Automatic annotation (TrEMBL):
<dbReference type="InterPro" id="IPR029039">
    <property type="entry name" value="Flavoprotein-like_sf"/>
</dbReference>
<keyword id="KW-0285">Flavoprotein</keyword>
<dbReference type="InterPro" id="IPR005025">
    <property type="entry name" value="FMN_Rdtase-like_dom"/>
</dbReference>
<feature type="domain" description="NADPH-dependent FMN reductase-like">
    <location>
        <begin position="4"/>
        <end position="153"/>
    </location>
</feature>
<dbReference type="InterPro" id="IPR051814">
    <property type="entry name" value="NAD(P)H-dep_FMN_reductase"/>
</dbReference>
<keyword id="KW-0560">Oxidoreductase</keyword>
<protein>
    <submittedName>
        <fullName>Oxidoreductase</fullName>
    </submittedName>
</protein>
<dbReference type="Pfam" id="PF03358">
    <property type="entry name" value="FMN_red"/>
</dbReference>
<keyword id="KW-0288">FMN</keyword>
<dbReference type="InterPro" id="IPR023932">
    <property type="entry name" value="CE1759_FMN_reduct"/>
</dbReference>
<dbReference type="GO" id="GO:0016491">
    <property type="term" value="F:oxidoreductase activity"/>
</dbReference>
Amino acid sequence: MTVIAVVSAGLSQPSSTRLLADRLAEAAGRHLAGPAENTEIRVIELRGLAVDIANNLVTGFPSPALKEALETVERADGLIAVTPIFTASYSGLFKSFFDVLDNTALQGTPVLIAATGGTARHSLALEHALRPMFTYLRAVVVPTAVYAASEDWGATSGDGLASRVDRAAGELAALLSGAPAKRPAEEKLIPFEQQLAALRPFTTG
């Protein structure tokens, strides 16, 4: 079974962020569908965990509900992460959730990043904020990031929202179908002095 965790940081109800998350999850499941493929989607709404996340930042201990959400992300084969954009970056709630997640939990995990906002001017936040964060966490971020501005929900052009959703979901599904097993969190660290000693002096003939 392939498990995809979906993290939605929408604050309102109903939420365009959750709507985009659901569309991405549905598209990924469709791309993974097959006689030998069984996909389970597990959605995490950060809105209901806001107080628990804040308490965890202060105390260092997660509540049972937050612990379950963190474990869902840690154990998932893939992740879809969607945030609203505020002041040209991800929301504080979104960032705080990944701050309390173990920083090795996403190592080698395929991740699809997406965001919503009122204007297309904020679309680059996916590239200058979200992608670097997940790269730092050593996740494998799919090439296509999906941004949905208010006007995108009714777009009918060839490269509209539906097309971007399908393309990104297909990239995530491809990684999940052919991805090797996730690497263990532990890495063997070679002391810097030892690495220097192994270098041979450069000489010219």
